[in-house]
Design a protein that fits this description.
The chain contains 14 helices and eleven strands. By secondary structure, it is α/β, with parallel strands linked by helices. The strands form two sheets. It has a seven-stranded mixed sheet with strand order 1-7-6-5-4-2-3, with helices on both faces. The structure holds pyridoxal-5'-phosphate. Pyridoxal-5'-phosphate (PLP) binds next to helix 6.
Amino acid sequence: MTFDDVRSAVAKLEAQIASGPIVPTVTPDEIRCHLAARYDFTRPLDLDDVGADVERMLRTWQVHVTHPRYFGLFNPSVTLASVVADTLVAMYNPQLATWRTSPAANEIERHTLAWLTGKFGFPASAVASFTNGGAEANLSAVIVALTRSFPEYGDDGLRRLGAAPAIYLSDQAHHSFDKIAHMTGLGRRAMRTVATDRDLKMDLDELARRVAEDRRHGFAPFMVVGTAGTTAAGVIDPLADLASFCRSQGLWFHVDAAWGGAAIISPRLRGHLGGIEAADSITCDAHKWFSVPMGAGMFFCRHPDAVGEAFRVETSYMPGKTAGPVLDPYTTSVQWSRRFIGLKLFLALAQRGESGYVEIIEHEARMGDVLRESLRREGWRVVNTTPLPLVCFTRDGLVTAKFLAALYDRQIAWMSEVRLGNGAPVLRACITSLRTTESDIEWVVREMGRLV
Ligand SMILES: Cc1ncc(COP(=O)(O)O)c(C=O)c1O
């Protein structure tokens, strides 16, 4: 099979999106009226007609995250190979819950994850699985860490623990952990928000002080989350120091590298992730900087026994156990039925090769530098420090909400506002498209200058 049809459809859409608007103006009523008028589901409709209508809706009524001037929230432009992969997955609909139901898909995922496991410096005995996204990978980490730290947690639950468990993370960590604390029964108060230093990195002295204080008060510290590429400002916590602190204190060290983890394959950037190899577990999303469609997260863990214990289950209705060392994914991860998530990364990686992927990552990092330099030249003040392509910036007297409304209205670019610490809102622009060029950036910065 060749993929000419998909290829030409993707090329056509890319061109259309790049020359069209980025931000829609639409009300919920407008869309609801359109849907109600056309789709009461009482009679069959022609698939081509419905498909064309859906495409029209998607083209006109969404923020185009694949636009080269979308500088947003880690939603990437996607590679052709990853689009082909999702089409193949939908056609074959492989079930990856057990190894036997799709040996091919399971082994392709395993092979792909083993490549990245090695890049992170984890041993070959580490386990990894694809997840729907970073939140599920972070959830997996907390469940496995709890299981390893408190052997009675699995059977008797948290209520049987002698002391209340506590998790430590910076005030810049991702807020999926709030929901995870809620969902796991830890409770949101189990989260200890550790202050950051002036560069927004987790403050180690403050961490040590909080852990010691909690121990004195009878709590049970069990996990520290370091972030490699914070959502607001792209900051990387001091991973090596956090790793040695956790080792000395017997704490689980998780690195949330949902976005920044992709930098591990870049010779230019990987040094910034030093210490990640000493983590107990890592979150890294393929659907962020690896430029594949949602949802594709990944969870890596150096303790296969703890993963096996956390997700163990016995049934008579699932196809029988596979002989040998192969484990069924439904017994080693949060999910049960499992989509072939990993094919999009495998196919894109196979097509471009590792060096092709390094080029994407380093191109986007370079575009981040271009954006920083260009903003400074035009009188903006950059307020975050990171080697990753995420720039937070402002200028005196700027009212961010008003400025963004004008930016969207003129379809100049999509970026967002964010508050760093207790500061006033600033603008946040992240390079997430492999197709963003230097001239896109220079044009955007020039046009922004006309709005202030
Ligand atoms: C650092 C970090 N961790 C976790 C997540 C959650 O990932 P997802 O949206 O894929 O569930 C995000 C999302 O942006 C993130 O930035």
